[in-house]
């Protein structure tokens, strides 16, 4: 039976030399497996990978260390084994909330051979140059890259920035300075990317061609941006994009933007299961957006439209959605629904005990006898939330 590794946390701001003294016995016993090492709140302006070369760590976390350079050799070293314990064992590396301005100032990153997840979130990175990752030994191992909370703009991420990351599945660009998605750079990840997140940026529009063809994409997060409208052809303007989204995209998050109008833009994403439009400025839901008698979004499970300004929902607006489990319309301005608003929706499988949710909390629902026909048209085990 194998022995599971353990973790070491150094978070009291001790001098780095003191931490190294503490780690010395572990460096001398490489058979001891360390699940993770977390060093935080300790000033380490420069770190050389040879300093920790003998540590058998799977997950290395360097947080809030004023680190700006991650070098290969320290000034006192003359040679470094390319097969060190550290660079062969680390699978997850987090260098967060530090002072890195350029990834090229961290040449040690290229050495790791088994790196599957790299986080450089919360630094001061201003640009990603062409071929930045092309010389990483782990470029074909890396599955997750987090560049959130930096100073990146769409023009500072060069078109070949992600070249070589052939198996990258998750890319985080949240909390940067993007005015639009870096389309050309992201397009280089079309064979592998499954999750793309660019929330809390300055994206103010989505035009045809802004989202590159990503045939494996399952989750797209564009929440907390400045988007006010979605072009009706946003998901269909590129033929291959239409096909790819229809076959893959399951989750779409456009919450807390400034969207005030939606037309029939989601129908090409026929396998969509979860859509979040919470916290926008939407006033009207047409019967072409999600449902309708000929709805193509038959796999939708959850729709969140809470905290908008919705006053009117078309008849059949949520019709023809047999898999739907949750509709959140809380905190809008709705008074009633037409009788066929939910026709053919909330269909309850004989083999499930799930209760579907219709959240109407915070709406001025009119419960007069002549305004409640829609309630009796609901099928399945629907729980209506709210006070009427």
From TrEMBL:
GO CC list: extracellular matrix; extracellular space
Keyword set includes Zinc: no
Keyword Coiled coil found: no
SMART domains reported for this sequence: LRR_SD22, LRR_TYP
Positions in coiled-coil regions: none
InterPro entries recorded: Dev_Immune_Receptor, Leu-rich_rpt, Leu-rich_rpt_typical-subtyp, LRR_dom_sf
Keywords assigned: Leucine-rich repeat, Repeat, Signal
Descriptive protein name: Uncharacterized protein
């Amino acid at each position: 039976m194998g022995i599971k590794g353990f973790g070491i946390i150094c978070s009291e701001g001790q001098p780095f030399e003191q931490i190294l003294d503490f780690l010395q016995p572990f460096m001398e016993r490489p058979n001891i497996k360390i699940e993770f090492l977390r060093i935080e709140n300790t000033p380490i302006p420069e770190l050389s990978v040879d300093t920790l070369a003998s540590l058998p760590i799977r997950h290395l976390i360097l947080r809030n260390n004023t680190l700006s350079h991650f070098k290969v050799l320290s000034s006192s070293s003359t040679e470094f084994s390319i097969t060190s314990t550290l660079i062969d064992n680390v699978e997850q590396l987090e260098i967060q909330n530090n002072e890195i301005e350029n990834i090229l100032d961290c040449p040690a990153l290229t050495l790791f051979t088994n790196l599957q997840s790299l986080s450089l979130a919360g630094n001061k990175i201003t640009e990603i140059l062409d071929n930045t990752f092309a010389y990483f030994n782990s470029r074909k191992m890396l599955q997750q890259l987090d560049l959130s909370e930096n100073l990146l703009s769409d023009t500072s991420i060069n078109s070949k920035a992600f070249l070589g990351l052939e198996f990258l599945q998750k890319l985080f660009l949240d909390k940067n300075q993007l005015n639009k998605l870096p389309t050309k750079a992201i397009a280089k990840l079309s064979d592998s990317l499954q999750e793309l997140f660019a929330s809390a940026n300055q994206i103010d529009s989505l035009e045809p061609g802004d989202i590159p063809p990503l045939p494996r994409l399952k989750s797209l997060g564009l929440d907390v941006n400045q988007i006010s409208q979605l072009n009706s052809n946003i998901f269909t303007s590129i033929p291959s994009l239409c096909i790819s989204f229809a076959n893959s995209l399951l989750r779409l998050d456009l919450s807390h933007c400034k969207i005030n109008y939606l037309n029939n833009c989601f129908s090409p994403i026929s396998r969509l299961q979860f859509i979040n439009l919470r916290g926008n400025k939407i006033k009207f839901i047409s019967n072409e957006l999600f449902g309708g008698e000929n709805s193509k979004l038959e796999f939708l499970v959850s729709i969140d439209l809470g905290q908008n300004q919705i006053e009117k929902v078309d008849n059949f607006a949520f019709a023809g959605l047999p898999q739907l489990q949750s509709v959140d319309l809380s905190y809008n301005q709705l008074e009633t629904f037409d009788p066929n608003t939910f026709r053919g929706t909330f269909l309850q499988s004989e083999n499930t005990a799930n209760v579907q949710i219709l959240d109407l909390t915070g709406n001025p629902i009119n419960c007069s006898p002549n305004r409640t026909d829609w309630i009796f048209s609901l099928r399945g085990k629907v729980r209506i939330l709210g006070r009427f």
